[in-house]
Design brief:
With about 750 residues, this protein is an alpha/beta fold. Strands 11-16-15-14-12-13 form a six-stranded mixed β-sheet, covered by helices on one side. Strands 4-3-2-1-10 form a five-stranded parallel β-sheet. Helix 2 packs antiparallel against helix 13, helix 12 crosses helix 13 and helix 15 crosses helix 20. It starts with a helix and ends with a strand.
């Protein structure tokens, strides 16, 4: 090789990078060593009670704070509190820990900061619909700043349970059905909450939850049993947790659920083998609320003492809310069933995080160090998230966007049009409805006095069965140019414990839409909900359908901008919308089966001749009454523009294990407005050591295109992207043929292929 000046320059550059990586790594490990030394030194001075204190988290929501709690903190018997957000009280409790307990160990102050704080952002499922991890990261940062100003230094988020069952109320808190996407968003939230440097104000510890498998609760009923074979667990449910750990998440929370007969809070396979041995996680794990005590309710242990034994033996570091550890670990130590070394190791993990967070240096909160709550930036990020999360599901005859200048009157109907609370969604402990901008108000403001707005709530709540208000609603519709109906689920119908077996629009909403439709006026339905719903029964009653999830504080301006075309809708579904609930679980990355359904093999039961011989029809995997396709597939979402895909190319027909392949396609805006499109990459590994999904999401990019503009969008794939856990559970990448597709949903048709060779 001829050494040119250019090569020399590159070598010098490379050397520089290597040296700086080396220095950085050395710096980091020196920091780590220093922390480990401080932890060891502290542990050597701790009594058993103080160690167990660090492993105990108590609820501090009661005000005034009970004296016993103050005393326990002073005695070093508490390592963390949760649910107190009065900054003066938090500082006072912290002061007792730091200045009046023997060793002065600061407290972790936990809170469910799930989608914003006082400023509420869209529910996480809505945030996933943005397919915009950078924006989600900014949202987490904004939420962390608001929360930290009240003394909170630890959030129980992100929730990264894979959710393939819309009946499950907690799907609202998740990023949906896809492992890759959930990993990307989970990591983005972790980075947003924790920042690069914990010691900066407003950077709070994150907690990836619920480890693991909670989203697979049978029949979508909360807390129910989960049955997940290890291979599926490793390929579907665990990858987001690995992604969160790679992003530096400080803590994990166990799941309430029973995994293959062993509840997560006593599950050594999860907490020891996977988390510590395989992944080398060096943060700590907190139980879920009372989930150690509940090991006995599961029938896994006979009593609290055995529950404490199982959880501690699995290495569960901290107990939330219940005193099982505090009451029983001393006895278990005395009996020699738990070794002091085990306790020390668990306390080490907790203290390590407290040191990393800089809590020993700076335990107190001074609200004036923070920007005000609900400041412009916080509201702006909430609004942008809400705007990008809205998915346009139907738009017949260009019913949307509404043309402001042509309107003389508009009917705004429905229980969610002007309800500051119900637009916020689940988990809004600190959310402030007073900050809410409702759709009705935003529309009024936008249209001014020129346009008459007929507002009729029509139903008291989203669940109302009464149709008493319908005549008035129909009247309002008749005298308007168009109707916008704000329907869906009120906040309390999703979230923890709030699972549904019927996921149609609740109450008499369907009837309301039918009545509105009969007026002959264009009907636009805006659905706010905490889960995918079965919408088949209403799509013929509407001209356009927007799915807005629970959009949060800024629902009004965000929805208004979409309705009037200030911005084109760009959200895409992070979870499959079933045609009917009997199809659940239905998700895009399913396996092919030995008898996959194809159109020519499907017959609807209405079309089967009477007494047809059994063997002559089908032999494929479908439902006689629902077929095999969902109503709206994963990744789906319409735009006011019109995007066309072409020219897919792979950079090489064959690559070796050490090479990467670039997959690219051209996307063109053939519409009349500038808009964002979420370009998605799907891959199929044709033959595997274990069967592989028909499609897996492997990349996505949000691009903005002007009318007529075209862009080549490319993705890189290498060995790691194509890896999966095989029959022996190890991670492997196999040589063979791979198909790829690029497009605007999981039904993308533009495909290509490449071969990965063994060398
Ligand atoms: C939930 C957790 C939450 C905890 C604390 C539990 O009921 O399952 O997700 O973090 O409560 O509020």
């Amino acid at each position: 090789m001829r050494i040119t000046p250019n090569i020399l320059l590159r070598l010098a550059g490379l050397l520089g990078i290597l040296v700086s990586i080396e220095i950085h790594a050395a710096g980091q490990s020196a920091g780590m060593d220093r922390i480990d030394r401080r932890v060891d030194e502290l542990i050597s001075r701790m009594t058993v009670a103080e160690k167990i204190g660090q492993m105990t988290q108590v609820n501090a929501s009661e005000t005034p704070i009970p004296d016993e709690l103050y005393e326990a903190v002073k005695a070093g018997r508490i390592g963390s509190i949760l649910n107190q957000v009065d900054v003066d009280l938090v500082n006072e409790i912290q002061r007792l820990a730091v200045e009046e307990s023997r060793l002065g160990i600061p407290l972790m102050v936990g809170r469910d900061v799930i989608h914003g704080f006082q400023t509420v952002q869209p529910i996480p499922l809505g945030q996933a619909a943005t397919w915009n991890p950078e924006l989600v990261q900014k949202g987490a940062r904004a939420a962390a700043l608001e929360a930290a100003s009240t003394g909170v230094n630890w959030t129980f988020a992100p929730m990264i349970d894979i959710s393939r069952d819309p009946r499950w109320g907690r799907i609202a808190e998740s990023f949906g059905e896809d492992p890759y996407m959930t990993g990307v968003f989970g990591a983005a939230m972790v980075r947003g909450f924790q920042g690069d440097d914990f010691s900066q104000p407003g950077n709070i510890a994150a907690c990836a939850k619920h480890f693991a498998g909670y989203g697979a609760s049978e029949s979508g009923r909360d807390y129910n049993t989960t049955n997940i074979p290890e291979n599926e667990l490793r390929n579907v449910y665990l990858p987001p947790f690995k992604a969160a750990i790679d992003a530096g998440v400080a803590t994990l929370m166990t799941s309430f659920s029973d995994l293959d007969g062993v509840p997560a809070s006593g599950n050594r396979f999860l907490l020891k083998q996977v988390l510590r041995d395989e992944w080398q996680f060096d943060g700590f794990v907190v139980s879920d609320w009372a989930s150690i005590e509940q090991l006995s309710v599961h029938g896994f242990t006979a009593n609290d003492k055995e529950a404490a034994y199982e959880a501690a033996s699995a290495g569960l570091n901290m107990e939330m809310a219940t005193p099982t550890y505090a009451n029983h670990l001393p006895e278990l130590l005395e009996e020699g069933r738990i070794e002091m070394a085990q306790i020390d190791a668990m306390v080490t993990d907790i203290l390590r995080i407290k040191f990393r967070m800089g809590l020993f240096e700076d335990p107190y909160t001074n609200p004036s160090d923070y920007p005000p709550i609900a400041n412009e930036d916080s509201l702006a990020v909430a609004e942008k998230l809400a705007r990008q999360s809205i998915v346009l599901l139907e738009n017949r005859n260009h019913a949307l966007p509404l043309a402001k200048e042509k309107l003389t009157s508009l009917a705004v109907i429905g229980p969610l049009a002007d309800d500051p609370y119900e637009q916020l969604g689940t988990w809004i402990f600190d959310g402030d409805p007073e900050l809410s901008r409702t759709p009705l108000k935003a529309i009024r403001q936008f249209l001014g006095d020129r346009v008459t707005i007929n507002h009729v709530r029509a139903m008291e709540t989203s669940r109302s069965r009464s149709t008493a208000g319908f005549d008035e609603a129909v009247e309002a519709a008749r005298s308007a140019d168009a109707v916008v109906a704000f329907l869906g689920e009120e906040s309390i119908l999703s979230g923890e414990t709030h699972s549904r077996a019927d996921i149609n629009l609740p109450g008499s909403q369907q009837e309301l839409l039918a009545r509105l439709n009969k007026t002959g006026k264009p009907v636009i339905a805006v659905i706010m909900a905490g889960r995918p719903l079965t919408l088949r029964n209403i799509i013929d009653e509407v001209d356009a359908l927007l799915f807005a999830w629970h959009p949060g504080t800024m629902a009004g301006p965000a929805i208004r901008d979409i309705l009037f075309g200030v911005e084109s809708p760009s959200g895409k579904l992070p979870a499959t919308f079933p045609l009917m609930v009997g199809q659940v679980p239905i998700y895009h990355a399913h396996k092919n089966t030995g008898r996959p359904a194809v159109p020519e093999k499907f017959t609807h039961m209405d079309d089967i001749p009477v007494r047809m011989p059994q063997a002559s029809w089908g032999f494929a995997s479908f439902h006689l009454d629902a077929g095999y396709e969902p109503l709206y597939e994963f990744g789906y979402g319409l735009s006011y523009a019109n995007f066309a895909y072409s020219d897919i190319e792979v950079s090489a027909a064959k690559i070796s294990m050490d090479e990467k392949v670039t997959v690219q396609a051209v996307v063109r805006n053939e519409g009349k407005v500038e808009a964002d499109e979420v370009v998605q990459l799907y891959v199929r590994d044709l033959v595997g050591n274990v069967t592989r999904p028909v499609r897996e999401l492997k990349g996505f990019q949000r691009v903005r295109l002007k009318p007529g503009e075209r862009r080549t969008v490319s993705f890189e794939l290498g060995r790691d992207d194509l890896a999966f856990h095989g029959r022996d559970m190890t991670l492997m990448t196999e040589p063979g043929e791979f198909h790829v597709w690029i497009g605007g949903s999981s039904a993308a048709e533009l495909g290509a292929k490449f071969t990965l060779t063994a060398d």
